[in-house]
Structure formats: C-alpha cells, structure tokens
Amino acid sequence: MTPLLPPRSSSLWLDDGADTTYPSLEQDHEVDVAVVGAGITGLSAAVMLKRAGCTVAVLEARHIAAATSGRTTAKISLLQGTRASDIAGTAGAMP
C-alpha cells in the first residue's frame, strides 16, 4: 500500500519559511515578568500575563518553537475541557 503522504525529515510547523529569529537585546529592559522559552507553554504564559496587565519579555536562545513545540504532533484545542466534562458527566468522574 502506498502511503498517503511522503515521509518527512523536517517539521511541518518549522517548514513554512516564516522567520522566527529576532535580534539580541542591546540594552536593559524592565518588565514585570520575563518568560524563558518561546515554545507553546512560554508563549501561552506570556499572552495570559500580558492580558492580565503585566509587561512581559519572552527570552529564547534560538528561535520560536525551536525545540519540542516545533517538532510535536500535539493538538491544541479549547474544547478539550468541555469534552472531558461531558465524558465525566456521562461516565462518572475518574478517581
């Protein structure tokens, strides 16, 4: 059987050609929170902190999604909690 997609040796997320590198800091900056790491977790935290009124700097040694976040097949969904609640309501909560 022929595979539907050819094998890939690079990340689909990182292969789109978008440049996610930024210049190094040239001077001191004062912020409420410095988030270390520009993966899914770091960027999500930075967005939530910014929405809460904090000044935020995101620090990354390489480029956005350079490590696990750029090479994962994980699915991000806002509905996961809703689905889990539906299942728990139908089948009962897990201990």
TrEMBL record:
<feature type="domain" description="FAD dependent oxidoreductase">
    <location>
        <begin position="32"/>
        <end position="77"/>
    </location>
</feature>
<dbReference type="InterPro" id="IPR036188">
    <property type="entry name" value="FAD/NAD-bd_sf"/>
</dbReference>
<dbReference type="Pfam" id="PF01266">
    <property type="entry name" value="DAO"/>
</dbReference>
<dbReference type="InterPro" id="IPR006076">
    <property type="entry name" value="FAD-dep_OxRdtase"/>
</dbReference>
<protein>
    <submittedName>
        <fullName>Choline dehydrogenase-like flavoprotein</fullName>
    </submittedName>
</protein>
